[in-house]
Amino acid sequence: MRASAAQLHRPARFALVALALVLSLSLLALVLTPQAQAKKSYDKFRAGSGMTTLTTDPATTSLLFGAGIIPLPVAPTTITPTSDAAQYTFPVTYGKLDLSEPSGYITHSGGLLLAQRDGMAWKALSLTKFTISVTNGNLTAIVNGGDRLAIADLDLSSATIMKSKRHGRTYVSIKNVGVNLNETAVGAINATYMTDLKAPVALGTADVILKGKAHWRWNWWR
User: Fold this and answer.
1) Angle at the Cα of 97 from the Cα atoms of 93 and 101, rounded to 5 degrees
2) Which run of H or of E encompasses 17?
3) Which residue in 62, 118, 140, 165 has its CB near the most CB atoms, within 10 A?
4) Most distant CA pair in the chain: distance in Å?
5) What is the mean pLDDT of residues 79-86?
């Protein structure tokens, strides 16, 4: 039996329609892909004020007191005694963070003065102008008014970072950051006070509250 022209052309017409549909969907996908894959690449935050509160580790506090070492606040740092340790509050002078990674740094005024009575005199080790490096995961300080050194490692494994807005002001909080004195700090303490501490030494847990304004930027995947 001889097939008609209509029977021969019908599959061809269906194939053309299907091909046109595929091309249309492909074109639509190309148009929509940048919007569908839009991703917030980073959230930059600049802080002009705030505070970092360090709650000292009870065991380390007891160890220092047992050696006659008293951690005193350097103004404008303040101290609040607790039942078995102490809380030190360090004013934030500036902060620049990328919350999406996270990375950046936070600078402070004040500091700590580790003092020990030595007869009629005092031995002292000053650690001032702390800078938290979120990027490097450490804490640096000016040691005895000289060089800036990394004195502690930061444990961010249990930390939480939150951004909020109240009364038109943007806030960022970083909570539950572990602070552990490294070999540099422990070595300085041992050399100054003739102690025999072994690094790392748990200094305590830090909570940071920053005040500032967030800037959002969007990038497209290509």
Assistant:
1) 155
2) helix 5-36
3) 140
4) 122
5) 92
Question: How many C-alpha atoms does 73 have within 13 Å on its Cβ side?
Answer: 19
DSSP secondary structure letters along 43-64: EEEEEEEEEEEEEE-HHHHHHH
Q: Containing H/E element for 195?
A: none
Is the model's pTM score more than 0.85? no
What are the backbone dihedrals phi and psi of residue 147, each rounded to the nearest 5 degrees, phi first?
-75, 155
Name the 3-class secondary structure at 187: helix
Residues β-bridged to residue 94? 107
Sign of CA dihedral 187, 72, 208, 213: negative
Beta bridge partners of 131: 107, 140
Three-state DSSP class for residue 194: coil
Which one is predicted more confidently, 169 or 29?
A: 169
| pLDDT at residue 39 in the model | 39
Closest CA to 181 of 107, 145, 127: 127
Please, where are the H alpha helices in 37-110? 58-66
End-to-end CA distance of the chain: give it in Å, rounded.
56
Residues 6+ apart with CB under 8 A from 218: 38, 39, 40, 41
Cβ atoms of 211 and 49 closer than 8 Å: yes
